[in-house]
Design goal:
Length: 819
């Protein structure tokens, strides 16, 4: 393992400033003012205090790039020309606001700095703005006084960024536009339909789709959507998709809380060990002439509903990256994944007759993944080659194969470090651009840096030399890229660089002056040793803003064990990490530690508990907290707490049951406490298929929390939404049943009709979490029914705060991903 950098060691050993406060005392009575002070640091309060962040820049077809700048006035749209090295307003926002107001007949003037424009491009010497506003498309001529005209073509989207797979509105879900924008495909009554964007004419192109055996459906497990999963061919004449067979798949039943007869919700939800799970039959639909569409069924058995990276077939957002077309639209490349994710087959299909040929395959002992947060294999049809990602060496690297023979030509990258994401390929120059971690000495192994390398492995070049994490948005032609650099403690610096890493435009620097005025302090980056005493583990430590070394603080661990992510999240600068700083503000030391079993390190590190999910990284959490207590005498290890959501809820209960003398208080939210009752594709990826052993036990027994509930000694709060369609509420009720049978005291909150993230009740859960730690870990009294300020605001819609603030892209809701 890479050793920690000197900088990081210095941060983790720094002496904290003294504050004039008395020693910690139990029995304190907290006031509303104490909770209000903590709430100051919630995301909905601090996010808007950070100015000039650069998030999600968009490249235009002409080689320029734009982004939203959140400044003192609000949002401005900034346009950068990297060739001319210029930066300025993308358009006259005041004129545009007036024109849009007239077009949508808004009763009140639109604020020019609160325009929620979703997408735009420029034409006619930048005098015309083609944009998407509030879900509608407009052509805005700003050459004179400014006039916006709605684009009313059915199914059409603004002709911005003509990218394959761009989506447009449809009553049935999201229609997926063809690359040439002449057609859009959508699902109706389990079949595929084509809408011609010029006329709005709709034509049915498949006819044998029925309930539970429909085309392109994404309604598998906890994912249920009307959006079609398809990949258009480059010539816009063919669609690669599948017919999804759920006719024998088991079901999940959700009963709403109501004072009338409940309407039963039935979802297809296969479980670990089920004989029959969701399958797909791969097809190509020729829609060159939609009225004479032809379905070509690939000549192969039904395939597993699995992906090379995500447990679901397509990763979140609908991109089906494991299916790729040749440049001439005649050949389809795809990868089939075995049910247990241990085998992968890269295959080619003839688009005309459906013939399928295996090119190569790979088998692993643990689980296969094709990258970190991105599928990295590529079908290079121009040179008849395959770019393949593999961890066969123990680290994630790139390999080049010959398509014709299926034989390896060369290993492109190597060493004790990981390629994480391939972001650009120049086939003519035979050059790759990719993100990697752990290659550079004295750099945090979680900081992603950007590289270029030739197909033969020569010419490796680091393009982002700064010791920071880099968020990269390359231009389509790879001539330039936007680089947003930051660390967990240092705000963003955004620049545009050329293909060799030279800075050509200084874009922006985050301004956190207003954030600091609140008394905000960044987390401390920490490093401890893992359970083996050798491997470095990394994380964050949060402390109160009135911290004093003369006090003794209870310690709270925020846990998410992985395997698909970790406890601490991204290494970018963030003004808030959920409510971790807010909780610290109430008189706790709060830590997160990415234990062994989480991604972005070596394959061995990631597979630490692949065959025993009952591990949950808890041995690493315990030893890490012990080391911190030895290092920092102001940590009171006799008062240790833990909490987490989903997989973190599972880990929290496991910690309370397996380490009952160490953890005194735990809060387990929406935990997948027994993965045999969770969706098959997630658990079977990480643990493998369930095996019934001769003695009547199972390889899944060790992770079933209800089997160890009798060991509880401390205070445990369980929480769950009764309509959770990701982790069913029965998961928590299994533990409740076991605790009752063991005659154990515990606490329980059920959120009627709430899903996995609790929705509007999420802030109530936050307040109850604070109360629970204050009462049982600090041995003090919380204020009576403190009302979270966000909840009291007009227009409140959930955890993101006021609905009328459009500072940036919407925040996600915590706890909505896999467990």
């Amino acid at each position: 393992m890479k050793s920690a950098s000197k900088t990081l060691i210095a941060l983790s050993l720094l002496l904290f400033p003294l504050a004039a406060v008395s020693a910690q005392e139990t029995g304190r009575v907290y006031t509303d003012a104490d909770y209000a002070q903590a709430e100051k640091f919630m995301p909905y309060n601090v996010n808007q205090l950070v100015l000039h962040a650069v998030n999600n820049p968009v490249w235009l077809a002409d080689g320029r790039v734009w982004y939203r700048d959140a400044g003192p006035k609000g949002l401005t749209y900034v346009l950068i020309d990297p060739v001319k090295k210029t930066k300025g307003p993308a358009f006259d926002q005041a004129k545009l606001a007036t024109a849009l107001q007239a077009a949508v007949k808004a009763p009140n003037p639109l604020n020019p700095y609160r325009l929620p424009i979703q997408d735009f491009t420029l034409a006619n010497g930048d005098k015309t703005v083609l944009l998407t506003f509030r879900g509608r498309d407009f052509n805005c001529d700003l050459s004179g006084d400014g006039v916006c005209t709605a684009i009313e073509k059915p199914g059409a989207a603004a002709p911005a960024a003509p990218t394959p797979g761009r989506r447009g509105p449809s009553d049935e879900g999201e229609a997926v536009l063809s690359p040439d924008h002449t057609k859009a495909v959508f699902i109706r009554d389990w079949n595929l339909w084509i809408r011609e964007t010029a006329t709005g004419k709709e034509v049915q192109v498949t006819f044998d789709g029925v309930k539970d055996f429909g085309y392109a459906t994404e309604n598998a497990g906890w994912i249920h959507s009307n959006d079609p999963i398809v990949v258009w061919s480059p010539d816009s004449k063919k669609i690669a998709t599948y017919q999804q067979d759920q006719r024998k798949t088991g079901e999940l039943y959700i009963v709403p809380v109501t004072n009338r007869h409940p309407e039963l919700e039935v979802l297809k939800y296969p479980l670990v060990g089920d004989k029959d799970v969701t399958m797909i039959e791969r097809v190509i639909v020729d829609v060159a002439n939609p009225s004479k569409a032809k379905v070509v069924r690939l000549k192969m058995p039904p395939d597993q509903h699995r992906g090379t990276l995500c447990d679901d077939l397509a990763c979140r957002g609908g991109d089906w990256e494991d299916t790729q077309w040749s440049a001439d639209s005649e050949t389809l490349a795809f990868v089939s994944t075995s049910r247990d994710h241990k085998q992968e087959w890269m295959r080619l299909a003839n688009a005309k007759n459906g013939d399928v040929r295996d090119v190569m395959n790979e088998t692993v002992k643990g689980f296969f993944e094709s990258g970190n947060d991105k599928v990295n294999w590529r079908y290079l049809s121009g040179s008849n080659e395959l770019l393949w990602f593999s961890e066969r060496s123990g680290w994630g690297h790139l390999y080049l194969y010959d398509i014709a023979s299926g034989k390896l030509k060369t290993q492109i990258t190597s060493g004790d470090w990981n390629v994480t994401q391939v972001l650009g390929i120049d086939e003519k120059a035979r050059t790759l651009f990719f993100l990697g971690v752990g290659r550079e000495p004295s750099v945090d192994p979680y900081f992603e840096q950007y590289y270029r390398v030739n197909f033969d492995g020569s010419g490796m070049e680091l393009l982002t030399p700064e010791k920071r994490n880099n968020v990269i948005t390359p231009s389509p032609d790879n001539r330039f890229f936007v680089d947003v650099l930051s660390t967990p403690t240092e705000p963003q610096i955004a620049v545009v660089r050329d293909a060799h890493g030279n800075i050509v435009v200084d874009v922006a620097r985050e301004d956190i002056a207003k954030l600091k005025e609140t008394g905000w302090i960044p987390p401390v980056q920490i490093m401890v040793k893992a359970r083996d005493g050798q491997t470095d583990l990394y994380g964050f430590l949060f402390r109160p803003t009135n911290f004093s070394t003369s006090r003794k603080y209870p310690i709270v661990n925020h846990v998410y064990p992985g395997p698909q992510t970790g406890s601490c999240g991204a290494r970018t600068f963030q003004p808030a990490h959920g409510d971790l700083q807010s909780l610290a503000e109430l008189g706790f030391i709060v830590v997160c530690i990415d234990g062994m079993g989480t991604p972005f390190r070596s394959k061995a590190f990631h597979e630490t508990w692949a065959t025993d999910m009952g591990d949950n990284t808890i041995p690493d959490q315990v030893t890490g907290m012990q080391q911190l207590a030895e290092r920092y005498p102001w940590i009171d290890l006799s008062r240790a707490g833990i909490f987490g959501h989903s997989g973190g809820g599972n880990a929290t209960a496991a910690a309370m049951f397996h380490y009952p003398d160490f953890f005194k208080v735990g809060i387990a939210e929406s935990g997948n406490h027994d993965n045999r009752m969770y969706e098959d594709d997630w658990a079977e990826k990480w643990t493998g298929l369930e095996v019934d052993l001769p003695d009547g036990t199972s390889n899944y027994d060790s992770q079933a929390n209800q089997s160890f509930a009798k060991n509880l000694k401390g205070h445990l709060l369980l929480a769950h939404g009764t309509s959770d369609d990701n982790v069913p509420v029965n998961q928590t009720l299994l533990v409740v049943d076991a605790l009752i049978k063991a005659n154990k005291d515990f606490d329980l909150i059920l959120f009627p009709n709430a899903h996995h993230g609790y929705g509007p009740a999420a802030d109530y859960m936050t307040r109850r979490r604070w109360d629970y730690f204050v009462r049982y870990l600090a041995d003090s009294t919380p204020p009576h029914e403190y009302l979270m300020h966000a909840t009291a605001r007009p227009g409140y819609t959930g955890t993101t705060g006021p609905a009328d603030v459009d500072w940036s892209e919407p925040e996600g809701v915590a706890g909505t991903d896999e467990p």
